[in-house]
Inverse folding.
């Protein structure tokens, strides 16, 4: 029988690389935790209708990329393709918006699923860390979120990313623009699928990556020219706040993003070292989404950053994260009695908070020392019959090679002092 492989478009996270993923998740979450965002966790699947309504019937995500299933009980579910609709659903369901404490600020981290054509940076299972500020219309919040994402990326050492910024207008000005854009697009030479998109969601045609389409889009009406005064003022304030915070951005009048729910502020973080899948994260304001999924009017803003692509961006910039060694002390027993005694010491060290590992499986000294070195531990504790007879273990500094006997009863305190 052949062995199983991970499903197409997925990959496994294994040590040592998996540590990088954890560190990236942590680095993105840290500024959020520090800014009043509370952790939220929602199920990996939802009723399919939530995404159909929330993300948009005409989006690629809903029409082509969703993993849907019918349960034995007849429920129509979908593996979550994104986080915002679920988080908003959870906040509404728990009435978080009724506590009188708006905005409700939440962050999340988890797995998302899209049936996409796999390539580097584009997978069928991927990880995002996201943040949502629900229930307030305030340009400070839009700016806050962009500033926090920028801070997260910078804390990882990333430099070659850019922030693209646009405003998509609101329910006053966007319809006027939409009609003007449709008039323009209907005069172009487009395939049937794209013509249908012109009818349903013309703004998304601007996002078409195909060069022949892009070429035809020169001279298309630009949303910026149609923004109403309120949207213009809002956008200008977000821009000023970012500038004041020293966060560089580029105005990108064509940025529309692939989800239907965005209004006003939209942004994308792109990394120049990633080739075609250059978007490492994105988000924006979604003032209409709550009503679209049956809730009250709750203007909100959020983003999601892709963990997989952020790790690729680190690799593209040649950044090695300084991760603390997973193991600090490695125990090497020589003989059966030493196995018992050292295992007890290992347990004590662990209980004292020292990351400790053990040469299992009755390895010889040479192999056991190899394992000790490979573990990244700074210290080895080695003990044989003679050491135990003297009531000591040998404490070896694996960096300098220096070795000294330490009374068994003092191993924990000695190591705690050394690492302090
Ligand atoms: P989106 O919800 O499409 O705006 O995605 C937000 C971020 O999630 C993107 O910028 C990517 O970093 C990441 N992402 C989205 N789809 C995928 C995918 N199929 N594979 C890997 N990362 C993805």
């Amino acid at each position: 029988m052949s062995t199983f492989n991970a499903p197409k478009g997925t990959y496994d996270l294994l040590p040592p690389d998996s540590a990088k993923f954890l560190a990236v998740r942590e680095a993105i979450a840290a500024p959020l935790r520090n800014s009043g965002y509370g952790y939220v966790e929602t199920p990996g699947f939802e009723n399919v209708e939530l995404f159909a309504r929330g993300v948009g019937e005409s989006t690629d995500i809903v029409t082509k990329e969703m993993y849907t299933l019918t349960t034995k009980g007849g429920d129509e579910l979908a593996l979550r393709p994104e986080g915002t609709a679920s988080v908003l659903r959870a906040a509404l369901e728990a009435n978080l918006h009724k506590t009188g404490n708006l905005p409700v600020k939440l962050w999340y981290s988890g797995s998302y699923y899209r049936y996409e054509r796999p390539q580097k940076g584009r997978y069928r299972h991927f990880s995002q860390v996201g943040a949502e500020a629900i229930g307030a219309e305030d340009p400070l919040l839009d700016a806050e979120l962009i500033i926090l994402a920028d801070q997260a990326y910078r804390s990882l050492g990333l430099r070659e990313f850019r922030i693209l910024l646009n405003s998509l207008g609101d329910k006053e000005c966007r319809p006027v623009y939409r009609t003007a854009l449709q008039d323009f697009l209907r005069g172009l030479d487009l395939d049937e699928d794209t013509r249908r998109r012109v009818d349903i969601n013309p703004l998304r045609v601007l996002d078409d990556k195909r060069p022949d389409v892009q070429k035809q889009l020169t001279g298309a009406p630009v949303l910026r020219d149609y923004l109403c005064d309120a949207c213009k003022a809002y956008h200008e304030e977000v821009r000023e706040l970012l500038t004041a915070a020293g966060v560089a951005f580029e105005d990108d009048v064509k940025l529309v993003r692939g989800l239907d729910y965005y209004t006003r502020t939209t942004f994308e973080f792109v990394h120049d070292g990633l080739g075609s899948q250059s978007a490492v994260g994105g988000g924006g304001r979604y003032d209409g989404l709550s009503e679209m999924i049956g809730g009250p009017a709750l203007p909100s803003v959020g983003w999601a950053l892709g963990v997989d692509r952020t790790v690729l961006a680190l690799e593209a910039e040649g950044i090695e994260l300084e991760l603390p060694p997973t193991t600090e002390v490695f125990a090497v027993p020589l003989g059966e009695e030493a196995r018992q005694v050292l295992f007890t010491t290992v347990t004590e060290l662990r209980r004292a908070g020292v990351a400790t590992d053990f040469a299992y499986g009755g390895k010889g000294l040479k192999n056991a020392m190899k394992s000790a070195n490979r573990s990244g531990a700074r210290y080895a504790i080695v003990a044989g019959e003679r050491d135990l007879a003297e009531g000591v273990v040998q404490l070896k500094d694996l960096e300098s090679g220096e070795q000294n006997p330490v009374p068994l009863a003092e191993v924990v305190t000695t190591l705690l002092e050394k690492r302090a």
Q: What stands out?
A: Residues 17 and 360 are 23 Å apart (CA to CA).
